[in-house]
Amino acid sequence: SDVGSQKDRVVTEEEWLQKWEMGNIGFHKEQRHPLLQKYLDVLLNGRSGLRIFFPLCGKAVEMKWLADMGHSVVGVEISEQAVKEFFSEHSLPYCEEPVPEISGAKMFQSTSGNISLYCCSIYDLSSSIIGKFDGVWDRGALVAVNPCDRQRYASLMINLVEKNSSYLLVTVSYDPNKHKGPPFYVPESEIKSLFG
Q1: Is 3 a domain residue?
Q2: 26: nearest Cα among 137, 185, 182, 146
Q3: Which residues bind S-adenosyl-L-methionine (predicted)?
Q4: How far is it, in rounded angstroms, from Cα 145 to Cα 184?
Q5: What's 97's domain CATH number?
Q6: Number of separate domains in the chain
Q7: Are 108 and 116 in contact (CB under 8 A)?
Q8: H or E segment and range at residue 118
Q9: pTM here?
């Protein structure tokens, strides 16, 4: 399938930080995603008290929703502004501490302990740092990852999930010749080759 001119497109971490600083965050949704609500049973699979990972989480409102259900939520986001806005917009007290294994990284944790957001590059994380997960909600991560980094991203995600985990992935479908991304077009065939 033709991914048009997107194949070589690279969005830098600085560009993402600038989007947050400028409030250019059309990707952020104030309401819970209807597909997560629709497929929540698939994600949870009758289980409670899960560890759920939010890659490139921004300030996703679904993190508090799932934490309020009794799940443990872990997210990663490059923008400290986004992480702090998440806690302030939900009036959640938190503490902040360095992540010893990652230079310059910080972990923000709700005082209740059930929401932990890492402020760093997702590629600095590993299961030895953040553990493994029962579920992943990937609403805007795979489609935001630079096309040249998709294999690296998918390998990390596969490494972070338990054997019986559920992975919910939202992508967008459009003509990649008409939009430079992000969000990037990821054809179904590529998703299958990345995740098996």
Answers
A1: no
A2: 182
A3: 16-27, 56, 77, 121-122, 139
A4: 8
A5: 3.40.50.150
A6: 1
A7: yes
A8: strand 115-119
A9: 0.95
Q: Does residue 7 sit within a domain? A: no
The answer to whether residue 82 is domain-embedded is: yes
Q: pLDDT (tens digit, 9 = 90+) per residue, 64-92? A: 999 999 999 999 999 999 999 999 999 99
* Residues 141 and 170 sit within 8 Å (Cβ to Cβ): no
Q: Which tokens sit at 63?
A: 């993190």
Span 53-74, average pLDDT: 98
Long-range contacts at 7-14 (CB < 8 A, ≥ 24 apart): 7/147, 7/148, 8/147, 8/148, 9/146, 9/147, 9/180, 9/181, 9/184, 10/146, 10/148, 11/144, 11/146, 11/182, 13/78, 13/121
Could you please report the per-residue DSSP string of 143-176?
A: TTS-GGGHHHHHHHHHHHEEEEEEEEE------T
State the binding site for S-adenosyl-L-methionine: 16-27, 56, 77, 121-122, 139
Dist CA 113 CA 141 (whole Å): 24
Q: Is residue 172 situated within a structural domain?
A: yes
Q: How far apart are CA 75 and CA 89, in angstroms?
A: 16
Q: What are phi and psi of 31, to 5 degrees?
A: -110, 155
Return d(Cα 32, Cα 30) in angstroms, integer: 7
Mode of pairing for the β-strands spanning 133-138 and 94-98 = unpaired
